[in-house]
Amino acid sequence: MVHTRDEMVDALDEEVLSEMACSFFGARCSIDDEVELFEARAADLELAGQRVTSLLALLNEAFIEPHHAQRFWAAINVPESFVALASGQRVSHYHAVPWALTLCRRYVKFLERLYASLVLAVERYRSGTDYQRTDGMGRSRLVGWDGYQKWAEELNARIDAVNANQSPSAVLGFARGLDMSGAEKARVVGAAINGYSDAIDDNLNLHHVDGSAAGLGPVQPLPSPDAVRSVIRSEGRAICAAERRRVMALLDRLSRLAEVS
To answer: Please, what is the end-to-end C-alpha distance for the chain in angstroms?
Structure first.
């Protein structure tokens, strides 16, 4: 079968346009899929953030009076912005109360263990944590704040590369150059591109993801339990001496709740 020159050119144009479309839309579909996964994994940070705020709220409550809590946080140089994260948050009262010979010793040990749990929760919020899957598929990992920001940075770099290498206006312009099917059609396509490439790209380009909006935002690590042990013991003893009945009521209530859970 003899093909004319025009038929061969048309066939080549169609093949080039097909490959261009596959490359253009394929790159964007890949990015869209990753963006969808990125946004879904924000739930990891929400969950880890809730653990932080619930423990923080319980620790503040365990100091009996707000000014006791404020004095403790100031003594260990933790900023008020972190303490304020617990404002209006749900308090998790399901935390084991240790045994000790005296009430004050029991109270101090409770404060120490509760603070250590909070330090660990903050670390897991920042770095992520492994967990055992319930479907028998082994272990998985919850993403942490630091890893989520790194992921956002890398994803945005790929978005920039796709936008720069295959901008919608450039692809449309190239397609117009290949389309020799008629002057009128070329004129119409050209009218939609010439002078409007910036607007086309603004509307059709892929947009950056924002990792900073997830969870609690950036949270600095807390001082280690060993570093603040003397402060906890000093504050705990002073509070127990001044608020003995309230301390006893707090520990008794938490013990009952722990038994139920």
So the answer is: 82
What whole-number distance in Å separates Cα of residue 254 and Cα of residue 121?
Answer: 20
Q: Is the dihedral of CA 52, 125, 227, 87 positive or negative?
A: negative
What integer is the mean pLDDT of 40-46?
Answer: 92
CA-to-CA separations, 121 to 17, 28, 143, in angstroms, rounded: 53, 37, 13
Tokens 């607007």, residue? 199
In DSSP terms, 142 is beta-bridged to 129
CA distance 182 to 185: 5
Query: C-alpha distances in angstroms, 145 versus 56, 60, 244?
Result: 18, 24, 40
As a dihedral over the C-alpha atoms of residue 250, residue 251, residue 253, residue 259, rounded to 10 degrees, the angle is 160
Tell me the pLDDT band of 92, cut-offs 50, 70 and 90.
Answer: confident
Given pLDDT bands bounded at 50, 70 and 90, which one contains residue 202?
low
Secondary structure in 3-state letters for the chain = CCCCHHHHHHHHHHHHHHHHHHHHHHHHHHHHHHHHHHHHCHHHHHHHHHHHHHHHHHHHHHCCCHHHHHHHHHHCCCCHHHHHHHCCCCCCCCCCCCCCCCHHHHHHHHHHHHHHHHHHHHHHHHHCEEEECCCCCCEEEECCHHHHHHHHHHHHHHHHHHHHHCCHHHHHHHHHHHCCCCHHHHHHHHHHHCCCHHHHHHHHCCCCCCHHHCCCCCCCCCCCHHHHHHHHHHHHHHHHHHCHHHHHHHHHHHHHHHHHC
128, 151 in Cβ contact below 8 A?
no
The whole-model pTM stands at: 0.77
Decide: 142 and 47 in contact? Cβ < 8 Å.
Answer: yes
Report yes or no: 115 and 59 within 8 Å, Cβ to Cβ. Answer: yes
